[in-house]
């Protein structure tokens, strides 16, 4: 009987210990970040202070122990499967498989991005080499019309234009749009909606990253580039015409079993620079 009681107690202690490690009870924080060139990463490190200035140069201080993922979907699946993981994703791509924490006490939402109370937010930009024409310009007109902005809002992003309904000329032809993997999902929805009102047009959407979208638009290999961040100084001198089509929040996500539900910007910076490595130190 005594041996049986001891076995039960041991099992209970083990269960409590395991549960604690899986819910911010002291486990090692597993940092998940996006790849170099990602607009989401660029905006995130700037807005959270992970990017610092040294000798006049901007330096990304993301810990070298971070797991690097090349898409929003991979970030979410990694965090979903790891109770000690933390990552960040576009608000419009957020799913119920993970938990978005509050930042400085404010939950990410269309409302809090719109009113500015949620601090980690960035623009969705498109760009063309000089003035667009034909299908490219007509598609941009659609995106900025109330029809296109309603598509943007319906998919969880914040609209930025107050233009009226689309009344384009519906030209014929094919264009290629490419770049940011964060902008791609809503661009696919915009493409579908536009091709219904203008069956004369064909739009190919290519997913890569913001830096590739900007550079290929500048080279003229894309009719329209996509970037989920502001353009850098060296990029704005490439003769690009930039149009902001939406605003987006960057949600900081943890596993659903993690008890943490609020982080300050300083705590996020300390986690992503490797200064804070254990969930028990997140207070």
From TrEMBL:
Signal peptide location: 1-19
Claim: Lipoprotein is one of the keywords in the record: yes
A Pfam family that the UniProt record links to this protein: PBP_like_2
Membrane topology note: Lipid-anchor
Gene3D superfamilies from the UniProt entry: Periplasmic binding protein-like II
Domain of life: Bacteria
UniProt record, GO biological process: phosphate ion transport
InterPro entries: PBP_domain (IPR024370), Phosphate_ABC_transporter (IPR050811)
PROSITE patterns xrefs: PROKAR_LIPOPROTEIN
Record domain PBP: where: 26-146, 166-281
GO cellular component: plasma membrane
Keyword Signal: yes
Keywords noted in UniProt: Lipoprotein, Palmitate, Phosphate transport, Signal, Transport
Subcellular location: Cell membrane
Function noted in UniProt: Part of the ABC transporter complex PstSACB involved in phosphate import.
Family: Belongs to the PstS family.
Record's subunit section: The complex is composed of two ATP-binding proteins (PstB), two transmembrane proteins (PstC and PstA) and a solute-binding protein (PstS).
Protein name: Phosphate ABC transporter substrate-binding protein
Organism: Pseudoramibacter porci
Lineage: Bacteria, Bacillati, Bacillota, Clostridia, Eubacteriales
